[in-house]
């Protein structure tokens, strides 16, 4: 409720001309310049947080490049696919699993190994 009241007072101060405010007996108020600066400051804080603070925290909390956790997930368990021969299973999306780095390298570099052998 307090935020709503403050918002209404802010909008009234921002949009009501100075002459009308003086006629209502309100003479002590900040410059209208602040009506533009206050929202601008809030927007800058939001963009700065989203563009600088959050990526910096993400970078700071990431493990180092030599950490084994970047290569394999210790909680991945068994990566066996569950297969079913039903008609509907042909169109199902397979379960997401981690593949061992050695398996990925074996598949990715198989052509390179064949060329080196010849």
From TrEMBL:
PANTHER family: PHOSPHATIDYLINOSITOL N-ACETYLGLUCOSAMINYLTRANSFERASE SUBUNIT P
Lineage, broadest ranks: Eukaryota, Sar, Alveolata, Perkinsozoa, Perkinsea
UniProt main location, coarse: membrane
Topology in the lipid bilayer: Multi-pass membrane protein
Subcellular location: Membrane
PIG-P domain location: 2-106
Organism annotation: Perkinsus olseni (Perkinsus atlanticus)
Cellular component annotations (GO), alphabetically ordered: endoplasmic reticulum; membrane
UniProt superkingdom: Eukaryota
InterPro entries: GPI_Anchor_Biosynth (IPR052263), PIG-P (IPR013717)
A Pfam family hit: PIG-P
Residues that span the membrane, as ranges: 33-61
Keywords: Membrane, Transmembrane, Transmembrane helix
Protein name as annotated: PIG-P domain-containing protein
Gene Ontology annotations of biological process type: GPI anchor biosynthetic process
